[in-house]
């Protein structure tokens, strides 16, 4: 009898908390208590937002989604709110574009306008926020596609998540899928941990078919870090319809800094892991290591400044590449000089102190890899060490004699230079390049040298093992000084 007497009030208290909206103990809010149906048909936007607002007003905690499909339009995070999506639960994006209203913003968008744009999950100038759990966020992105990149336009299709000016952000565990545009987008954010989640947002998964063979595209990147600082991306799987992990800078005063990307597996209908192309400010102190990149239609790894950005102290190490349809490695200093901010003055770009080490790759395209500046603006201090690449090959004698266009203002991608005169690395307008312990080979016969250097000041080349056909030298030097060469054929 004493046991029953003591337990009954505890049970009654728990039921009372459930009714009041704090369903799972102190600090948790259940949208069902605010009217959510979780049937996948009835809009739950107001109920979920009410739970999030109540959580914030109380000082913070968790909003808990469980046992159902919660149909919603735009949800806006406030300080100290964590959205927990339990295993088996889905937060489902509305198919009605009116459910994603644009509102005034303190921060300029991609186009420089002071509006939020259309977002599914949105936060602005918030701190201590995040998403966690083993559930799913589904953006219903296939509802918004009518053209090669979708209609409505890119800037009117809802991004799945867009956080702006936020601090202390954590995203853990959740599966994000079927975004209408970029999947996870962060602008001017700092102190972020993005760990252990999955992105499945690729409308044309078969890399051996043309990009839009089975479904029209919608430019759905995996993770976009734009002018963000102090970021740790770790332990993620990303399968994206456009770039998988990409760092950008939209402002000449902006910076991507103090960023690590580790233990990730990525595949993309564009590039795997990339800095640029939007590159107005600076990129510095960035480390990428222990990653696998496979089945990419464009570059595997890319470091690009074409809008005036300064890039310094970037390292890639211990990376495996497989079936790369573009360059395995592309390093580019160009002068497209696009501005994304009103009245912005484009700076003169620079790129130096970049290292690639312990990188292996197979089934790499016959285009070759480019490390290229432009006349009067050299790339400086690039190290390639312990590289082992197998290319598909097939380059012709005509390819080997081809004059590569400067294409100073061109978009830095697979069409920038076309097939290069080297099957391995083509280096031009560069200074202080170290190439050490590099092994290059090909599948189909290739009539090009392994390495071509044109206008390179200070090349240190040692430990090269490069397959070439009889009568073809593995290295061709044009206006290139100071070579230290120990070459095996």
Describe this structure in words.
The chain has 489 residues and is mainly β. The protein has one domain (22-488): Single-stranded right-handed beta-helix, Pectin lyase-like (Pectate Lyase C-like, 3 Solenoid), CATH 2.160.20.10. The protein is 7% helix and 47% strand. It contains 3 helices and 34 strands. It has a 34-stranded parallel sheet that branches. It is elongated and about 80 Å long. It starts with a helix and ends with a strand.
The portion of residues forming beta strands comes to over 45%
Could you tell me the radius of gyration in angstroms? 25 Å
Q: How far apart are the first and last residues' alpha carbons, in Å?
A: 89 Å
Anisotropy-based shape: elongated
Secondary-structure topology with pairs:
Blueprint: H1 2-20, E1 28-29, E2 39-43, H2 45-57, E3 61-65, E4 69-72, E5 75-76, E6 81-85, E7 90-93, E8 119-124, E9 127-133, E10 136-138, E11 159-164, E12 167-172, E13 175-177, E14 184-187, E15 190-195, E16 198-201, E17 223-226, E18 229-234, E19 237-240, E20 245-249, E21 255-262, E22 265-268, E23 273-279, E24 282-296, E25 301-305, E26 310-324, E27 329-333, E28 350-364, E29 369-372, E30 379-393, H3 397-400, E31 425-444, E32 451-466, E33 475-484, E34 487-488
Parallel strand pairs: 1-3, 2-4, 3-6, 4-7, 5-8, 6-9, 7-10, 8-11, 9-12, 10-13, 11-14, 12-15, 13-16, 14-17, 15-18, 16-19, 17-20, 18-21, 19-22, 20-23, 21-24, 22-24, 23-25, 24-26, 25-27, 26-28, 27-29, 28-30, 29-31, 30-31, 31-32, 32-33, 32-34
């Amino acid at each position: 009898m004493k046991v029953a007497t003591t337990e009954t009030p505890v049970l009654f208290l728990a039921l009372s908390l459930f009714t009041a909206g704090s369903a799972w103990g102190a600090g948790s809010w259940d949208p069902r208590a605010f009217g959510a149906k979780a049937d996948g048909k009835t809009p739950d936007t107001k109920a979920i937002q009410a739970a999030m607002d109540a959580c914030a007003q109380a000082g913070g905690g968790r909003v808990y989604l469980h046992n159902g499909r919660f149909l919603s339009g735009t949800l806006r995070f406030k300080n100290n709110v964590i959205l927990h999506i339990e295993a088996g639960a889905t937060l489902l994006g509305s198919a009605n574009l009116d459910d994603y209203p644009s509102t005034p913003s303190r921060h300029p968008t991609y186009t420089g306008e002071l509006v939020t744009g259309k977002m599914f999950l949105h936060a602005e100038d918030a701190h201590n926020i995040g998403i966690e759990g083993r559930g799913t966020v589904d953006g219903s992105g296939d509802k918004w596609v009518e053209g090669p990149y979708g209609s409505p336009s890119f800037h009117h299709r809802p991004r799945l998540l867009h956080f702006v000016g936020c601090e202390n952000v954590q995203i853990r565990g959740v599966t994000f899928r079927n975004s209408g545009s970029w999947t996870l987008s962060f602008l001017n954010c700092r102190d972020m941990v993005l760990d252990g989640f999955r992105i499945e947002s690729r409308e044309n998964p078969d890399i051996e078919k043309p990009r839009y063979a089975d479904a029209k595209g919608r430019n759905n990147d995996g993770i976009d870090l734009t002018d963000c600082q102090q970021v740790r991306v770790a332990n993620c799987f990303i399968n994206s319809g456009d770039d998988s992990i990409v760092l950008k800078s939209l402002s000449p005063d902006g910076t991507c800094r103090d960023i690590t990307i580790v233990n990730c597996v990525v595949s993309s209908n564009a590039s795997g892991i990339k800095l640029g192309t939007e590159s107005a400010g600076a990129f510095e102190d960035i480390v990428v290591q222990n990653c696998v990149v496979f089945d990419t239609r464009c570059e595997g790894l890319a470091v690009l400044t074409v809008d005036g950005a300064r890039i310094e102290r970037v390292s890639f190490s211990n990376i495996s590449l497989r079936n790369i349809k573009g360059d395995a490695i592309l390093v580019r200093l160009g002068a497209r000089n696009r501005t994304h901010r009103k009245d912005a003055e484009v700076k003169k770009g620079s790129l130096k102190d970049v290292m690639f080490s312990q990188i292996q790759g197979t089934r790499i395209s016959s285009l070759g890899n480019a490390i290229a500046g432009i006349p009067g603006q050299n790339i400086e201090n690039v190290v390639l060490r312990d590289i082992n690449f197998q290319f598909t090959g097939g380059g012709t004698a005509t390819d080997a004699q081809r004059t590569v266009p400067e294409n100073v203002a061109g978009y830095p991608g697979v069409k920038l230079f076309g097939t290069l005169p080297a099957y391995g690395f083509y280096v031009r307008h560069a200074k202080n390049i170290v190439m050490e312990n590099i092994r290059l080979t090909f599948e189909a016969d290739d009539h090009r040298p392994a390495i071509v250097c044109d206008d390179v000041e200070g090349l240190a080349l040692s430990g090269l093992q490069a397959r070439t056909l009889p009568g073809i030298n593995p290295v061709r030097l044009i206006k290139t000084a100071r070579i230290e060469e120990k070459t095996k054929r």
